[in-house]
Amino acid sequence: MSERTDEALIEALQTGDRDAVGPLFDRYYDELFAFADRFLGDPQAAADVVQDTFVRVLRYGETFSGRSSFRTWILRVARNACLDVVDARRRDREAKAELPPPDPSPPPEEPDPRIDRLREALDALPETRREVLVLRRFHHLSYAEIGEHCGISEGAARVRAHRALKQLRRELSPTPEASSE
Amino acid sequence: MSDDALLQRIADAVLGPPDPERNRALEAELADRPELLDEFHQLREAWSDLADLPAREPPEGARARAEAAVLRALARRTEAKGREPGARAAAHAGGPEPAPAVGGSRHPALRAAAALLLFMAGAVAGAWAWPRLGPSPDVEPGLASGAGVPAPTTSSTADEPRFVLLIRGGALPGNEAAAIREMEGWVTRIWNADRLVWADRFLPERAVWVGGERPPSDEAQPVGGFFLIRAPDREEAVRIARQSPHLAWGGVVEVVPVARGPGASP
User: Fold this and answer.
1) Would you call B192 and A52 a contact, using CB atoms and an 8 Å cutoff?
2) Cα dist. B150→A61, A149, B188, B257 in Å?
3) For the residues B217-237, what does the mean pLDDT come to?
């Protein structure tokens, strides 16, 4: 039997076909996890987001119109789920002044200090910039796709990617320059 | 060529598809602009460094849990559609699939959660109406845009550990609408993660104390309601509790494990 397309799988999912779940996970789980992990810098939160993403795909699948590729669409669903986490973190930060800090969970072990530095530098970028850089570098989206993903123009996506990279370079530099837009 | 135009070409060269010939030409062009040449090299190095950032592995068992959650959600959805008289009639007639039911067939746990929220909002009737029900035609995938609510949960998760989150004390902040949206977001996330079993509100001011006085601790932080959730362990339950916006409103959440075993509720 030939492999089913993404569109066929999402359609099957809408009709309650359990056999559509496995292939969708095979195709997208790792990529979505990598995206969410780089976006959020937290593997546990990323795993939650990916689970939430697939549940949303089940729920919103019928709104997938096919105008963009399914991959771009599902990445956008994951992005929305990531933004919810970012919002929750923001609220948490605002509440911290009044609350005792929670027990910090130890960061995952990273034996290579260079990789540590890269992660820190990426995490230091504002979400909007980090997202563009991650989509371009690791998911190889075109600027048009990134623009669609983020709700900005292709040109704005290009400019944002450039600024993000410049800031990353500053973050990676041993003597960081003053941050400027 | 202006600096802006050169900078744009540098950005395109770094962020675009690899093209050694174009890069050599650009380097030659920048030979008399050492600061821009340096910018080009540094950006290229940062871009190249970034590629070395490996993808991490998901936490152990995360994929299996996610897949199981989706299968459960799928089962609930199928079951709900099967229960709709319109759906059965349409299916029998070969007609189109009806839109998900809205309003009348809400999950009881969500109804209870709504009741709890209304309680916390000081029973501001009408302020909270579970506005995210019902997909719109051009819905953007995401929580903020609407969804049909799944049908009641099945008993396939009956053996999972359960915890009660007791919502104690706290007062709704000034912007009630925003606070309710926050609470709604939290409840929806628990729901989407297939954790929510039940929720309900209490009326502590009408409580009757039998066999003793009301303890001062309860007076200071009365229990306003509870969420019964499923979670693989206490850490996960605590993590969920920590995300409650209720904490930012001066309240606390008490996480109490529920005994499971023979005689436990399904």
Assistant:
1) yes
2) 14, 27, 11, 26
3) 87
Strand partners, B258: B162
A122–chain B Cβ distance below 8 A for any pair: yes
**Nearest Cβ partner for B243 among A64, A88, A169:** A88
What is the C-alpha radius of gyration for chain A, rounded to an integer number of angstroms? 18
Other CB atoms closer than 10 Å to residue B220's CB: what's the count? 10
Poorest-confidence range of A124-128, B97-101, B189-193, B241-245? B97-101
Closest CA to A133 of A172, A166, A164: A164
> pLDDT class for B106, splitting at 50, 70, 90?
very low
Quick check: A88 and B185 CB within 8 A? yes
Label residue A23 by pLDDT band (50, 70, 90): very high
Q: How big, in percent rounded to 5, are the helix, strand and coil portions of chain A? A: 70, 0, 30
Paired with B256 in beta bridges are B164
Residues in A closer than 8 angstroms to B173, CB to CB, are: none
The pLDDT tens digits for B76-91 are: 777 776 665 554 443 3
pLDDT at A174 exceeding the cut of 60: yes
The conformation of residue A134, written as its DSSP 8-state character, comes to H
Instruction: Report pLDDT for B113.
Output: 57
Position B142 pLDDT exceeds 70: no
pLDDT given for residue B143 in this prediction: 29
pTM beyond 0.90, yes or no? no
Count A/B contacts: CB-CB distance under 8 Å: 166
One-character DSSP codes across chain B? --HHHHHHHHHHHHHSS--HHHHHHHHHHTTT-HHHHHHHHHHHHHHHHHHT-PPPPPPTTHHHHHHHHHHHHHHHHHHHHHH-HHHHHHHHHT-PPPPPP-STT--HHHHHHHHHHHHHTTS-TTT---TTBS--TTPPSSGGG-BPPPPPP-GGGTTS-EEEEEEEE----S-HHHHHHHHHHHHHHHHHTT-EEEEEE--GGG----SSPPPHHHHHS-EEEEEEEE-SSHHHHHHHHHT-GGGGGTEEEEEEEEP-STT---
- A169 to chain B, minimum CA–CA distance in Å? 5
DSSP three-state, residue A124: helix
Smallest Cα–Cα separation from B117: which of B189, B167, B166, B180?
Answer: B180
Residue pLDDT, tens place only, B112-123: 555 455 545 443
